[in-house]
Amino acid sequence: MTVRAGREFLAIPGPTTMPDEVLQAMHRPALDIYSSQMVELTESLLADLSKLFATKGKSYIYIANGHGAWEATLSNVLSRGDKLLVLESGRFAIGWGQAAAAMGAEVEVLKGDWRRAVRADEVEARLRQDKDHTIKAIVAVQVDTASGAYNDIEAIGKAIKSTGHPALFMVDTVASLGCMPFEMDKWGVDVAMSGSQKGLMTPPGLGFVAANGRAWEVHKKANLRTPYWDWTEREGSEHYRKYAGTAPVHLLFALRKAIDMLQTEGLENAFERHRLLAEAVRRAVAVWSEGQVLGFNIAEANERSNTVTTVTMNGHDPAALQRYCKEKCGVVLGTGIGELSGQAFRIAHMGHVNAPMILGTLGVVEVGLTALGIPHGRGGTEAAIEYLGENVGA
Ligand SMILES: *Cc1c(COP(=O)(O)O)cnc(C)c1O
């Protein structure tokens, strides 16, 4: 017997649930890619992406996932042999660095930890040692989707600035843009990147990059540039060049609708919705943890992301729980990856999420814990309900 039917719910950190409006926005014929509607669509999206990144700098849209957008950032500002400093807080900045190494950069990892966020003072100390300015760029993620860490980009930006070191600061916002505040210009970020399929509620397939004037100056001399990623190639009046070829028309329809929805809700409201739902998840996990099996991967409460929660499992197989939730109840939980492979599961709460989706997911996890006899503190979902009841307001 199962209690699953109808739509499977994806509680995974991407691709996330797409709103029906976004799906429907794609159900129409393609545009003439040389038409004025096409040009207007592109221009409106590039302007709105720069607003989402909170930058006066330029934005670029690539037909690519996040890995592609990583490569876009690297190829536009690095030259062969340049040194890149990777700020570790889990899996994703490391992956960005691996791409850079494969492309011919020299990569140094500022050792971090899977259980905590990047420490701004450690970044500062490393940069102060680099008196000859051999480090050309620094990469960090705002949210590490594997560990669940939230990095304080503002604090890291300040630490970099305090040293006077000229390295470019590049930030991955794939698992945070549209969900948690991000202020590219105010926080001293030179290059930011993101993707369509997480907080932005759009099908996978679009990668976004924003660059400021400092990044553009470095770009002019960078020798890892290749035609598809090259910002310069995408400038000029010819619309066709904005995508280095045919525009991904339907994905752009979807993105337009998703950003319209975010603007209707109000970005601040979307951030607050994420904060409330994330805290509801954390209340549940805190109660479950009393059973000594489940726990938060990220030790410090203020370093936990509002978009994904990584839950460790001590002495029990997370795969069995995931299988139960999916096959019996139609909820797909995220898998533990990297160092947490086989030791954790993840609950995503990013993008098009609401109270029934999150409370339903928590309820299903509790059903699974009960069915499989996994020890856990009782009343996790109840604690989430109480939290929302006390904080959403009448
Ligand atoms: C998902 C993710 C990526 C990779 O994106 P893909 O679209 O899967 O290539 C990169 N960085 C972060 C923080 C992510 O969450």
Automatic annotation (TrEMBL):
Keywords of this entry: Aminotransferase, Pyridoxal phosphate, Transferase
One GO process term, biological-process aspect: glycine biosynthetic process, by transamination of glyoxylate
Ribosomal protein keyword on record: no
Top-level lineage group: Bacteria
Aminotransferase class V domain location: 30-336
GO molecular function: alanine-glyoxylate transaminase activity; L-serine-pyruvate transaminase activity
Required co-factors: pyridoxal 5'-phosphate
Binding site for substrate: R346
Residues with N6-(pyridoxal phosphate)lysine modification: K198
InterPro entries: Aminotrans_V_dom (IPR000192), Aminotrans_V_PyrdxlP_BS (IPR020578), PyrdxlP-dep_Trfase (IPR015424), PyrdxlP-dep_Trfase_major (IPR015421), PyrdxlP-dep_Trfase_small (IPR015422), SP_NH2Trfase/AEP_transaminase (IPR024169)
SUPFAM superfamilies registered for this protein in UniProt: PLP-dependent transferases
UniProt similarity note: Belongs to the class-V pyridoxal-phosphate-dependent aminotransferase family.
Protein name (database record): Aminotransferase
High-level lineage: Bacteria, Pseudomonadati, Pseudomonadota, Alphaproteobacteria, Hyphomicrobiales
